[in-house]
Amino acid sequence: MREARRVGWSWRVVVMVGAVTLGGGMRAAQAEDPYLTYVRNAPEFRSVAQDPRVMIGRWDTWLYMPWRYKWGIGTADAGGEFCKANGINGGFTDHGGGPFDWLNKYGLRFYNDHTAGKGDLYLHNANDWNYYKPYQRDPRVIRGGKEPKPLDDAMRQRLTKLITERVGNIRKHGENCVAYALDDEVSWGAFVKPLPWRVNDDDAAYAAWLKRCYGDAGAPQPQYVTPDVTWKQLDRPLGKLDFSPLLDRLTYNDSVWANMLGDLVTAANKADPTTPCGFVGGQSPNIWGGYDYAKLMHKIQYIEAYDLGSSQAVIRSLNPGNALPQVTSHFHNDGRGTANDVWQAWYYFAHGNRGMIGWIEGWFDGQTPKPWIEQFAPALREIGGVQGPKLVGSTWVHDGVAIYYSHPSIQVSWCLDAEAHRSTWVNRANDFKLGTSHNVRKAWEHLLTDSGIQYSFIAYDRVITDGVPDEYRVLILPACYALSDIEAERITAFAERGGTVIADFACGLFDQHGKGRRGGALDTLFGVKHTGDETAKDLFGDRLWVETDQDRAYSYKKYRELFDTIKCTVRDGFAVAEPKLGDAVVRKVGKGRAVYMNLSPQRYMQYREENATTDAMRDVFVQPVRDGGATAWVTITGPDGKRPRNCEATYWSKGGRTYVFVVQSASVTGNALGGGAAVGLSDKTEKIEVRLAGAAKDVRNERTGEKLGDGDRFAVEFNPVEAVLFSFEGGPARGR
User: Fold this and answer.
1) Backbone Cα Rg of the chain
2) In this predicted model, what pLDDT tens digit does every residue of 387-441 receive, in sequence order?
3) 125-136: b or e for each residue (b if 16 or more CB lie within 10 Å)?
4) CA 674, CA 652: separation in Å to the nearest integer?
């Protein structure tokens, strides 16, 4: 019985009847797994209050909130009338101060920045790389280095007092506060620089945490090391790699950090139970700095994050009920033009953002607004004044596809990626642009959306405690290097119930602590075999463990430069991960199946950048997703009968109606300070046909107000700088 069809390259097909016998070092299902016990009970995975009524609260539309740096027009009547005329419906206050009278007079909803001050959650000198270099190779240094800022009870009490005072002042004077930000660009380090220091001097607490995480019997003694212990191991075989002395410590730092943020959010809630609290300037998912979003999303009620390393999509996916206000930053760039500003507003609105924080630089000549603002204003007026209220309280609709968010895999990926740097790991930055885990994750996102399929991320803690929810038909494991035994059990159970599990490469070769396995955690599920004797030359066939030499291409401008650094075996345009494993394997498992690609999808980023993608190319990865039951129910074609380039549909549900956006899915650039912008933005307006999988009732063009009646296809004008937005009664009809 053939379980898969050929999609341009060879499949090795294995048929299995009945349940999978757990292997690869996995435990028998007897006493509760210690890691399960830890995740189920650890405070870092417990949520602060996240009441949708509070998080939505006064946030009743999409808000544009200018951070008034170089706000030349002032905060008198001229500034207020400027806001009204240009669709600017929000604002900000800083450190608990005003201008409250101005914000109140013009009805500007605002967030307060630096509610917990500046210099504690964000370290002074954080952007000065040279300042921190003396501390990067001393793992006993306490957070802050020369000026220690430990995450301890003293800081918690001091910041709680400050938060209480500032929130109290805002409640007394401000009518329209919609959120409190503890601080901007927060981190247990300095942004996401490699800083393997101790976050405080409570070594006993670290030892106790290790016992909870491992179980009393298996807990190691605390160690304090730097990445010098990881890159020096990488000439060993897989089974002898052990990154846990470093990664356990960083995981503990993430936990201390998350709990600190949660305590401060709770302090803000006590001072004001009606307004959400979080932080702004969020970074990419990262081994450094506290950016494990599985933990963070339990501890906040509001966030502004830069769109780096899939952070926006991860946050949207882990947002409880899509109620938590998620925004991003906006930086105007004269060189990119106003079309870039308009596109950002529509694109992020279509992906669940409830507003933007605008960095006001280059807006004014003295007190005179520059002409581009008038060109941007129609988008602000429409999104904030017309469309925004319609989507408040709506719920994201996916197509039954989950992408796995494995933070231990992000950590292991960094250790492997940094091999090329060796002792110069201290200088590594830009993981979101360089890192294997980041590029693989983003490639999967583009492969899916370019094929008309929507997804959500699902975090490792949820799968550990509850398994993979049945709302999903397909689970994708992107560069999931590190999996625990309990995760392997939960994922296997999902396949046995009828789900499809797809791994690209190197799946589960490490445990959750970063220890190399003798056999992959999911080898039995996928029908592949690892022995622990594998070395770097067995992965991608060259001198490194990964597909790219990220030192040689550290400052690359185009993806081709990155992928030209390693000579890999390439099949159908993609790098073969382990030539010894051969072709992809499809395995029937209970009522479902497992697919091991043995290919890396990263190069799709290059082909997309070069406008060289094809349906056949995408099908290498997407056909197994379709075979698992996830299919596009919205088909979009241009005048040539083809799907427009980089065209994406997003969908939301509210009040018995489905809202569908059609937007351009351009690539985004940015850095740790924000500054995101679209690359290769198309501005060619064209007629498109939108076809649904079944007839819909009461279809409406939400932007023009035109009633399109009932039916399954209609023509609309698509300006890719903006968005198409239509709605219809009921949910999506699937199953053409």
Assistant:
1) 25
2) 999 999 999 999 999 999 999 999 999 999 999 999 999 999 999 999 999 999 9
3) ebeeeebbeebb
4) 27
State which fold the 401-627 domain adopts.
Rossmann fold (3.40.50)
pLDDT at position 674 is 84
Q: What is the mean pLDDT of residues 64-76?
A: 95
Interval 675-684 mean pLDDT: 84
Q: Is the dihedral of CA 390, 395, 397, 401 positive or negative?
A: positive
Task: Supply the DSSP symbol for 577.
Answer: S
Q: Mean pLDDT throughout 96-100? A: 96
Looking at the DSSP assignment, which residues form a beta bridge with residue 364? Answer: 369
CATH class of the structural domain 54-394: alpha beta
Q: What is the DSSP letter of 321?
A: G
Q: What is the C-alpha separation between 149 and 200, in angstroms, rounded? A: 8
- Contacts of residue 32, defined as CB under 8 A and 6 or more positions apart, other chains included, come to none
Would strands 592-596 and 500-503 be described as parallel, antiparallel, or unpaired?
parallel
Report how far residue 206's alpha carbon sits from residue 227's, in angstroms, rounded to the nearest whole number: 19
**What single string gives the DSSP state of each residue in 265-301?**
HHHHHHH-TTS-EEEEEE--S-SSTT--HHHHHHH-S
Q: 38 to each of 34, 201, 243, 251, 723, how far by Cα in Å?
A: 6, 23, 20, 13, 45
User: Rounded distance, CA 615 to CA 524, Å?
Assistant: 31
Nearest to 230 by CA among 220, 222, 240, 221: 240
| pLDDT computed for residue 675 by the predictor | 73
CA distance 507 to 521: 8
Give the 3-state secondary structure of residue 249: helix
Q: Is the pTM of this model over 0.90?
A: yes
- The model's confidence at residue 18, banded by pLDDT at 50, 70 and 90, is very low
The domain locations on the chain are: 54-394, 401-627, 634-729
Q: 54 with 276: CB under 8 angstroms? A: yes
- Phi and psi angles of residue 368, each rounded to the nearest 5 degrees, phi first: -95, 120
First to last CA, the chain: 25
| CA separation for the pair 324, 301 (Å, rounded) | 5
Facing residues of 142 across strands?
A: 198
DSSP 8-class letter at 488: H
Percent of the chain exceeding pLDDT 70 equals 96
Residue with tokens 């959010």: 265
Residues 232-266 have pLDDT tens digits of 999 999 999 999 999 999 999 999 999 999 999 99
- Angle of CA points 637, 638, 639, to nearest 5°: 130
Task: Map tokens 């300070």 to a residue.
Answer: 673
pLDDT in tens, 601-641: 999 999 999 999 999 999 999 999 999 999 999 999 999 99
pLDDT at site 66: 97
Q: 3-state class of 407 per DSSP?
A: helix
Q: What value does the mean pLDDT take over residues 71-75?
A: 95
Beta strand 686-701 with 707-718 is antiparallel
If you write DSSP's letter for every residue of 146-208 in order, what string do you get?
A: TS----SHHHHHHHHHHHHHHHHHHHHH-S-EEEEEEEES--SSSTT-----BSSS-HHHHHH
Q: Is the dihedral of CA 101, 103, 106, 107 positive or negative?
A: negative
384 and 62 Cβ atoms separated by less than 8 Å: yes
Distance in angstroms (rounded) separating the CA atoms of residues 667 and 450: 12
Mean pLDDT across the chain, nearest whole number?
A: 94
Cis check for the bond before 99: say yes or no (omega within 30 of 0): yes
In degrees, rounded to 5, the angle at the alpha carbon of residue 113 between the alpha carbons of residues 335 and 75 is: 70
- Alpha carbons 394 and 253: distance in angstroms, whole number: 35
d(C-alpha 459, C-alpha 355), whole Å: 25
pLDDT interval class at 30 (50, 70, 90) = low
Distances (CA, A) of 371 to 67, 368, 405: 19, 9, 43
* Tokens encoding 54: 């509070």
Structural class in CATH, domain 634-729: mainly beta
